[in-house]
Structures are given as structure tokens and as C-alpha cells.
Amino acid sequence: MAVSAAAQPPEFNHLTVENGLSNNSVLSIVQDSRGFIWLGTSAGLNRYDGSKIKVYTPDSNSSQSLWSAGILSLLRDSKSAIWIGTNTGLNRYDEQKDNFERIRLPAIGTAAINCLYEDHQGTLWIGSSKGIFAFLTNGTKRQRLQFTTPRGAPVTTGVVRTIFEDHQGNLWIGTSNGLIRMWKERQQYFSENFFYDPSRPESLSSNNISVIYEDPQNHLWIGTQNSGLNLYRPANKTFRRFMAGNGNRGPIHNNIRSLVARNNNELWIGTQEGLSVMDINNGVLTSYQNEGDNVKSLSQNSIYSLYKDSNGSMWVGTYFGGVNRVDAFSTGFKVIRNNGSSNTLANNVVSTILEDNNNNLWMGTEGAGLIFYNRKNQKYQVFKNEISDPFSIASNLVKVAYIDKDGNIWCGTHGGGLNVLNKATGKFLHYLYLPGDAENANLEILTLTEGGEGLFWVGTSRGLRVFQRKGLQLNELPLKQINNKLSGFIASTLYTDRKGQVWIGTSSGLHVIKHYVLKTISTTLSVNTIFEDRKGMIWIGLRTGGIASWNPVSSQLTRYNHPGAPSANILGILEDPNGWLWLSSDEGLFRYNPVSKTTLSYSVSDGLAGGEFNYNSHLKDHNGFFYFGGYHGITYFLPADIEVNPYKAPLVFTNLWLGNRQVQINAPDGLLKKNISHSDQLTFRPNQNLFTINFALLNFIKSDKNRYAYKLSGFDRDWKQVHNPAATYTNLPPGDYQFFVKGANNDGIWTEPIMVKIKVLPPVWRTWWAYAIYTFLLAGVLFLVIRFFFLRALFKKEEELHQVKLNFFTNVSHELRTHLSLIMAPVEKLIDINHKDPFTSQQLMQIKNNSNRLLKLVSELMDFRKAESNHLDLRVSKQDLISFLQDIYTSFRELSLAKNIRIAFTHNSNQVFLYFDEEQLEKVFFNLLANAFKFTPEGGHISVTVNTQPGFTEIIVSDSGRGIAAKYLGKLFTNYYQVADHGMQNTGYGLGLALSRKITELHHGSIRVESTPATATTEGRTSFFVRLLPGKKHFEGNAHVTILPGRKPFPPATRQSIPIREKPAPVAPAGIRIKRQTILIAEDNPELRALIKQQLEPYYLVHESADGADAWENAKEHLPDLIISDIMMPGMDGIMLCNRLKTDQRTCHIPVLLLTAKSTQHDQVKGLENGADIYLTKPFSTKILELHVNNLLQAHKRLQEKNMRELRFFAASTQSVSTEDPQHKMDSDFLAAVTTIIDEHLEDPGFVVEQLSRKVAMSPPVLYKKIRALTNLSVNEFIKTRRFKKAAALLLQKGLTINEISYAVGYEDRKYFSKEFKKYFGVAPSDFNQHILEQHKQMLNTNEII
């Protein structure tokens, strides 16, 4: 192996069908204006972008495709249009539409387009199998013509294979029948022919011309199909022949197919048997062919096309091997590795590379020992371990090698210690090695260096060792003699700088020592390698992907992150003449510029032996060559030979994918109207939410190293760097974006970004017009909402006003009822007193009748209030409508006679049974007839007619009154409405007809009115039509309707009859009662309260309270026998008072009678639910009130007697006094509790009233009144009863003596006990038996104890 800077053969990179090429026969090549390489093959046209190939083939169904798949010629004209010559016709590529225009030539049949050429005037010349054609373009006009001579004859009768214009404007045409030169004078073309003349060696070598080309030195070259290459001599119009077989003075083969100049000095010649490269200056040719196993040689020898691209790279199209590319900028990396021969590198894992004083190389390997390379004889010598030779190297695993100042070779090994070669004897001396010692078997010598003071430093896997070297002899020195801090250091690298300082790099820091003084630079750096540049700067290669520098002048440590490979281990550092640092790593080789802080990276594709280098395996030799050892051999190079590709290649968009489907131009999806590289904007619909944009950097030099960065402005925050030229986005929010992408070529030269706008349309519901609709809808909703709240406020205000009216009527009704009670009660009493005085009775009856009429009006107001609040309940039953109406009709007879009004009642059926509420429907027809009489003048007539029809019954009430104007009819049934016409004033509230309509509608019927106003000549007529439904089905499911059996419903509370015994007890005559009972009256109206008190005071002890709260306090204090309470009172109302009375154990036994103007069923139920015993509506009869009071007190007295008998009948047990009335359960529970407490203390003679009151949490007076109210017994009598009941039970058991029994029931004195027992049972305890007990019970049943 010769290591020199001699010129190397070109390296050919291959592109074949394995890479996507449609066919390996590449017959023509061209580069378009955007930078794509177009390759014409025998099976289609290929567009190459550096990573992907797009193939175009003919489509029989499309006129916008190629004529045929055989592509013979390609041309890019001055307008950047691509012309394609096929074996059946001519095509022109439409770049925007990405399709082809078919050009028809003025020739019969198809023609193979062999060549295409554009002259300096823009004329397109077409050489074909049918002659030469010219294609002229004048503005928008195109002219195609077959070129002939001025005489009209064809320029040639042969096949035109090549056309070329020289620098003088001559047009050279190569045919199968000679060479033609044409020139233009005075708008005419003239021609001159050149032919092969066997007798003239200076003539053409053959008439079969294949290619014509003019080089940069204006030499015109003519290639022939079988007779080599010709150089035209214009001075004498002769030719110089270059033929194969003349060594380096001729091409490799005489079939010349393509010519192109690489530069001013090189002419590339493509032949049938390979590539020949001519040095134009001296005419020397160098030929290249396929070399079998050399992957960088020509892929195949049969060359058909040559092309130089815009970057200077050469493209070589072959017939069987695809296309080859020779890059314009080469990386001159060379490789030393084991090639299997006897004279080669023995092992590819190289740990150390050294150059000795004789410029020979020493290489340590991990597996083949130490290798010596002699540059003079180019021979390798291997020093390996020989088991039989104790003076051989101790281990073949050489980790480090070092040449000391005397030129001695030292080798640190794994398991073999430290070895030094004696060059004189060829034997090795061993240190730190004992054969067979297990401890030394794993010892590794990692690094070596020689510092000042003659110290030899050895870094091992177990720490630092320092020796004093003399020649080949080493004497170890204790570390503490040098520096105590050195102990424990495990050095990964040792390095001696030009000042003699020894640098120690470890996995946890960097240190330097000189003159036994140790200085620590860093305790955080993980150091792999150390290097001093020519400026004295110390560079440190780090294990964590970067480098650091130490400036000895400023004592500043600076760390640099590695931009090319942030995770790479930097394993070796060398400096080139430009001051750039070359860094070997486990991820390739890097060139770092310390000034610009930029990095270039190199990989296997650049020619490196491998991508992973070894620790500290590097060398710069005397010639300036750099060597880096790795796991796949040695890479060496001269830094100046490593060219940088400065070309900023074009960056273009290539494809658009929607999902996994490539988007076509003018496809139904509508995404692309033209080629994506010419599209300014891409617009996606909402359902097109997954798309991929392909792009390509048209740098073909090591295109696998091209890098890209893209960013979607408005979506991505940072640039995304990728190697794959594609960007995929999914579910982009609707909006406008800008997609930017930039590319870097193989040497990291970045282009300017290119951009395409992206618009993602919103879904239908997010478009501007949708938002406009939303705005209108929102405005409409807001309007409706505002209108709703406005109307609701109005309605609320109206409702509040309405409620004010209703509450006013309710309160007025309540007050009226109260005052009517004050009027009617005295009147009734006066009528009873003066019934024998006719005149006084008549006047009193008039007062009573008017009071009743006023009461009816008040009741109507109350019914209207209930109807408006949806609380008017119906109690319907099946009744005869005819007899019902007859009764109402009869009640108006006297009024008709008084007003001289004729009335009539007609019906078409004698009986009509319907379900209706008699009381409520009576109000309807009373109102209608009352209004008829009110507005009918004397002498008029009124009729009531009943018509029974299938499905309904209609009642018509008509009168001949003044009538109602049509404009008032619609408002007639409105609340509070009154017709004010004819100059007359109506009386009333305007509620009668409104209430009538409500009641009719509650019966699921209807009411309407028809009226004709009276005139001067005719009487008016007004008719009300009430329609009712048969049956009761329409009432079912209505919570406000109760269907009752029988003819009539239960009368309401105002008419309830009071159950009176046939011979009632006199209304409390004074002689009957021993003790007057107590009544509490709770009424806020003082007059009514005084009236009730006046009525009851002769017979009862009456207490008064003006409100509920005072009544409650009064009841707790006095425990009255009965309470009469109004409901509507300030503060605590009657309902609340009743509830509190009935839920308090002290007052729950007191009967409550409620007086109120509230007469609804709901109000009655509410009062009774809260414990009221009687619910009496105002106005009321004082007689009825007296009877109710008397009956309640008599009922309470009977309850007392019952409780007393039960207490005397039952045995002395804790059983509760039974009652079937749930209302009295609290009283029963109270008596049971008191009985239980007494029974528990019967043996205690001191258990009296005070102790019992404390147990039941009542004061003695309250307890006394409570027990008296329930049992008519005093507390002491109650306790005594329980004691004697217990004594009787014990006596009947006969288990104890009388003395013991007396103690058991709380009597300490036996005699006193016997005396009291005899008073209770009538016999002494000794005479008591079962018979006596039965007699006692019988006596209690027949006698009432007061």
C-alpha cells in the first residue's frame, strides 16, 4: 500500500432499478430549471430529486401523456421547457400541469426523435429517423417545418443522430450518411457536406456520425458509431482521428456515443466499452470500466449518455447498469483495512497509530498485537504473542502504544501489562505483568505519556503508576512522592503539552501537573482525549457529546455543545493547517471550525472506513496526512483534499398526499390546480385533515446526508429537523398558515426557506356565514330573551296588580264576613226575642235578608279569588239539569212581576241528567239571569231555553235589553270589565261573567255571547250560550274535581249542619255545673271578640287574647278547657297556634275551634290537619257556635270519664291507656308515661306531686291542670289510685302480708293504709277478694264520678 497524494480514479455512485428507476437503460439525461434530473430510459421517463424517482409512462387513455416509453433524447430550451424525443414522436412537458403535450411533426407516420438542439436564435432543431425538422416559435405562434435545401431537397437522406451549433453559429448535423455543416446568410441556409474518404487519412473516419460536441477550447469533436473520435481542424477542414488501440492516445472503444466536457481540461467520452477521459491539453486519455467487486467503479461499460449538472457533477447513463454519478466535490478519504492478502493490515480494530523517526507507521490492534508498516518497501510486520516465546509481546490486545523521547516503542495491553520493544533484538521487556497471575489477567494499560523530570506516566484500570525511565528500564516511584492527590486517579487519557505539563483526564475531571504541583481544572468533565493546538490552547474531547477548551493565558474553561451529534463521544482531536479541528467519535468524523463554531460531519457514505472510531487512535504524519483508527480499519486523508460542497441546491415541493393517496392535479378533491411546486396556496376542506407535503433538496452529492427543517407558522413553535423529506399534519384547526421548509446539503450548507400558504377551511358550522347566522340567531335570541324578560316583567307587574286586586277582595271579604258576623249575630238574637212583635220582626228580617245578600256577594268574590288562583274545587254529581234550572227560574218570578218582565223557560226534554257542581253552576245562571233582569227594561222579555243535542247540551239565556255593541263583546268575560255605554253607569265589580266563564270552563264547557244593540225603532237582543258535556269522562284525572255519588254533593263548610242530640243538654244553665269551664278566645277584631265573649260569658269563664302569640302564652299558663281562635291574625296566625297547641304535651288535650272567613276546602283541610276540632266559617250563627262549644266540652268530659274508668279497671301495670282516636294519642302516651313513673316509685312514701312534676318536666300547677283535664282527678288522687290498684293486685296474689303490701305501695303506717284502702274499695284489705273487685268495677260502670 502506497500512502501518497496521487490522483485517485473517480468514484461512481449508482442509481438503478433497485432505487426506483423504471429501467436500467438510460439513453438520455437532462436537468430542468428547478434542478430535477430527468432520465430517459427505454421504459419510461424518470424524474429524480435526490431521494425519490417519479416515473412517467404513456397512457393510451390520455392525450396528455408521452408518445411512447422509449425516451431517446431530452432537451431543456432557453425558456426552461423540457422537450422529450421518443421512438415514435416528440413531446413537450407542461411543468404546471405535470403532463405532456404531443407535438406532431410534418412527416408521414411516426418518427424516432434521435436528438434535440436549440440554436442561439431559439430555433429548435429536431433530428429524427425521417430527417431534420425545425420548430419555430414567434410569440404565441408555432411553426413546424421539415428543413430542406434552398432547392427544396432534403438536407440529408440519412438518419439524423446529432445536431450541434459551434461558437461561430455553424450548425453541424451528424447523420448516418455523413457530416453536414449549415450556416445562415441573408435569411437563407447554406450547407457543406463531409464524408469519409479512404484515401485521405485527414478525412472523417466514418460517415456514420453518432455525436458532435464543441469543448470549452472551441475544439469541435465528432464521434462515430464504429470508427472512433474525430477532431475538426477548421483551418484546412480536415480531421484528426483518435482510434481505440492506440494506448492512452485513443478511446477505450471506437463506438463513440456521447461527449461532454467536465471542465476546461477534461473531455468525457462515452463508448460502448467504457468511459474515456481526455486531457484536452495533451490529448492523453484515461479509461474507466467496471471493476467487479469495486462498488465505486462504473456500474456497466456500455455508455449511452453523458451529462454535466448545474453543480458540476457528471452523470453517466449506461445501457444495462442504470445511471452513474461522479460528484463535483469529492471527499478524499482513503482506507487501510484487511483485504485478505498476505501483505495487509492484520486486524481492523486499530487502537493506536504512531509514526517513528524514520516516518514508518506503528499500529496497535486489539487482536493482532503490534503492526509495523515500512513505507519504503510497503511491507507489514506483525508482532504477536507467541506462547513459546517469553520475549514476545505479552498480549495481542494492544490498548495503547507510545514512542518515548528515545524512540522506544511501548505497548499497553489488556492482560499483558506494559511491554517495550528492544529494536536491536526484536524482543519485548515486560512490566506490570506476571504470567499466570490472576490479578494481572484483567489489568488494562489505558494510556501512556512521558513528562518532565524523566517521569514516565502509566494509566491503568486500577489507577496511576509513575516511573523513572532510563532507556528501557523503569523504576516505579511512590505517588505520594509526587503528589498525594494522585492516588485514586483512574486516567482515561494522559497528555504532555509543549511545556512538559502532564494533563490527566478522568471520567470525573481534568487535572494538570508540573513540578509535582497538581492543579484541578474541572471536576465535572468526563474526558476521553486531550490535544494542544498550535496556539497553545488545550482541547478536551468529552464523553458526553461535545468538546471543551482551556485557555492557559486566561485560565478559562469553555465548553461547546456538539451541533452535529450531541450524544457522540469525542475520541480523538487533530488540527489542520487552517486551524480547524478534526474530531473522531463513535458517530463518525467531524470538522469543527473554532472561529465560526460550525461543524461538518462525515460518515461511511463519504468514504470513511467505518462510522465508529477508537479511543485516542489518531495521528498526523510528517506529510500532513491525518490517520484515524477505528473498528473497521484506518481512515486517512489530506485535509486539503476534503472538498466542501458549497452549492446551495434548489429546494422544491414535490408531492402532496391526502391520507395514503397521492393528490393529482385537477382531481375531484380540488386540492391541486397545478403542480404543487407552482402552487402558492393549498386549501383543505374540513374532512381533509390528514395530509403530507413532500419536498426535496436537489443536491445529488451524497443526497442521503441532506437534512431538512420545516415549520408551520401558526401551528409549530420551533423548526423541526428531519432527514426524511416529508411533513405530515393531522387535525389542523381551521385557519391560515404558512408552511416553511429549508434544506442543508451534505456539507451542511442551508438554503433559504421556501414557503407555501395553507388554508384549512372551517366546517360548515364554523364558516363566516355560519357565524353571521349565529350572530343573527344570537341577536334574535337576545331579542326574544329581552322581550321575554320585558314581557315577563310586564306580566309580573300585571299579575302583581291582579294579585293586589285579589288580595284586596280577599281581605275585604274577610272584613265583610267579620262585620257581617257582628251584624247577623245580634239580629238573630233580636229576632228570637221579638218574634211576637210583627213590625220589629219585619224590620229585623229586612236587615237579615240584606245581610244575606251581602254575604252572597262576598262569597262570589271569594269564589273568584279561588278560580283565579286555580284553587276552585268542584264537587260534581249526577243531577237533573231541568229541575236545577227550574228552581233558579222560579226564584226570579217575583222580580219579573215587579219589573213587568215576561219570562219563559222552555226545554226539549223533560229530564237532562248531567254531572255538575250544583253550587257553582247555580252562580253561573244566577249571574246570567240577574244581568238579564238588570239590563231589560219594563215590558221586556227574558227566556231560558235548554236544547239537548248529540254530544252536548246548550242553555240559552236571552233578553230584550238594550244590547251590547260588537266592539265590547270580546272583552265581556275579562276580569273587572264593565260596559259603559248608553250613558248609563253599571254597578258591580265586573266579576260575575268572568267567574261564570271560569266555572263553565272547569266543567269543560263553554260560554259565549251574541248581541244586537237596540235602536230607536227596534229593541235589542242579548243571548248567552252555555254548552255542557254529557257524562263524567271529561272530569276524570282532574285533581280539582271530586265525583260524588247520589243526587247532591256534601254541602260546603258554610252550610254544614251541626249534629245535635235530640235532647241536647241545656246551653250551660247555671245550675248544672259545679265548676265553670274555661274558654280562651283568640281574635284580633275586638268587636267580634267582645261579641263571642258576651255570648259565652254567662256560662263559662272566658279569657281573651288579641293575637296568636298571646293566646299561646295564655294557653300554657291557664290550660283552658277550649280555645276559640280566628285564623287571620297578626304575628302567629290561627293555623300556627293550633299546630303548636296540638304538638305540645301540655296543651295537646285542649279542643280548638277555628273561626275564619276562608271557606275553601283546601283551607278547611289545612286547619283540620293541624289539629282543629271544628272549622267554622264567618259569618256564623251564635246559636251554632254555642252548640259547637257545648258539644266539644261534653265530648271532652266523656273522654275524661273514659280515662278515669280505664285507670281504675286496669291492673297496676305500665300498659298505656288505650285509645282508638289518633288525635288523642299524645294524651294517651302522656298518661302512660305518668303511670309508668308512678308505678316505678310506688314503694316511695315521699313520692308526691313535686317529685312527679320534676319527672315529667312540668310545673305542679300545669301538671295539676293537665291531669285534671284528662282524668278529672287531682294529681294526688291519680297517684293514690295507682297505689291502691297495685295493692289490690298484690292482695289477690296472696303472697305477701298486709304489712308488706302497705310498704310495697308507699304506706309506712299499716293502719292508715287499711283505712284509706277501705275508703277506696269499701272493704278492709283483709276482706278484699276477686268478688269485691268485680263489684267495684260494676259500680264504676253505673255511676259517674265528678
From TrEMBL:
Annotated CDD domains: HisKA
Positions of the Histidine kinase domain: 811-1033
EC class (word): transferase
Catalytic function, reaction form: ATP + protein L-histidine = ADP + protein N-phospho-L-histidine
Domain of life: Bacteria
SUPFAM superfamilies: ATPase domain of HSP90 chaperone/DNA topoisomerase II/histidine kinase (SSF55874), Calcium-dependent phosphotriesterase (SSF63829), CheY-like (SSF52172), Homeodomain-like (SSF46689), Homodimeric domain of signal transducing histidine kinase (SSF47384)
Molecular function (Gene Ontology), one example: DNA-binding transcription factor activity
Modified-residue entries (4-aspartylphosphate), positions: 1126
Stretches that traverse the bilayer: 768-790
Keywords annotated in UniProt: DNA-binding, Kinase, Membrane, Phosphoprotein, Transcription, Transcription regulation, Transferase, Transmembrane, Transmembrane helix
Domain Response regulatory: 1078-1193
Positions of the HTH araC/xylS-type domain: 1232-1331
EC numbers on record: 2.7.13.3
The protein's name: histidine kinase
